[in-house]
Amino acid sequence: MLPLHGMKVLDLTQFLAGPYCTLILADLGAEVTKVERFPGGDDSRRVGPFKNGEGYCFAMPNRNKRSIALDLKNEKGKHIFMQLAEKADVVIENFRPDVKTKMGIDYNAVKAVNPGVIYCSISGYGQTGPYSQKGGFDIVAQGVTGLMRMTGEPGGRPVKVGIAINDISAGITAAYGILGAYIHKLKTGEGQYLETSLVDAALAWTFWESAAYFGAGEIPAATGARHRRSTPYQAYKTKDGYVTIGAGNDKLWTNLCNKVLGKPEWVGDPRFIDLQTRMKNIDLLESMIEEILKEQPTSHWVEKLDESGVPGGPVYTYEQALNDPHILARDMVLEIHHPILGDMKTIGFPVKYSGTPLSIRTPAPWLGQHTNEVLNELGLQEEEIKELYNENVVYNKYPERMII
């Protein structure tokens, strides 16, 4: 039995922050039902690449979930949603703060039919504050939180982090918030409302940067591959690429000098005698290290780093990362069959359980794939379901695959 077996989740979210949250819950065994508008569905369904009309970007974070396509603006559609909400443990949404209230599906409305519900909202800026009504995507939150000013090369333009880090951080934050509320509910029977935002979640990850600012008034700026508090701790150029080295403490620094770089005299050099002096001379240190590293390829230096016990590794392209034997041995690339996309690869599970191993139980659903199944669970009969389709209250993208 999976850890969250029996938890019922209604997922009104789209794009990445919310779906990543519900992916975590679904992978852990929760029954996650996406409630999607139609004919478009979750906005990430519009993002390519596509195969046979289905998108890979939607397929990745939406495995192990069901989909019901439902018109929430229709009174019958809203009635169906409230029936589902009445039985749900968790409802999660990422509308702008006022939208859910206007639609009549906000926390108070759901709580009226399900007092024990856990209702979670994810938004750009949060449910309160002067910016609460503004829309917020990952790129906007990266700008507002200062992340773009501390990413990239010194003196360069602001740079976006290479992944949608604010979306992911908000999704993770919402997931652990929901799990905390769920444990509370199991102990007390009480549900509650919780919310987070892309901005709040990202700022919560800036521990060392906030320490430097609150402690010394330092404003974190772009440092390229360098660490702000430690060196050698960055990517260095080699003969054929780059290698990362993490030798920030004295023991590792000594091993690096003696066993990797062949420069034992650097250990006692007054310019590098401790971490503080190495940081003061970081430009010089970088040039001196790279002068040596450029003589051999990356693979040579990775081998020497491994032999000396100094943490380091190659700077891969994404393609190289996904084909690395260690990544494959850790099952971080899995294969699955999708009924429309066909055989496809996806990212594996970052947490390995000894007693309740995770698996891809179902591929991401097509829009409205489980509409009939969900309606049947509510006790609707065949003729009632047909009438809902005829009235455009519900939808299935592939009616030829539909079984009534």
UniProtKB/TrEMBL annotation:
Keyword Glycoprotein set for record: no
Pfam families assigned to the protein according to its UniProt record, in alphabetical order: CoA_transf_3
Cited InterPro entries: CoA-transferase_III_domain, CoA-Trfase_fam_III, CoA-Trfase_III_dom3_sf, CoA-Trfase_III_dom_1_sf
GO molecular function: CoA-transferase activity
UniProtKB keywords: Transferase
Protein name, per record: Subunit BbsF of succinyl-CoA:(R)-benzylsuccinate CoA-transferase
Organism whose genome encodes this protein: Paenibacillus naphthalenovorans
Lineage, top ranks: Bacteria, Bacillati, Bacillota, Bacilli, Bacillales
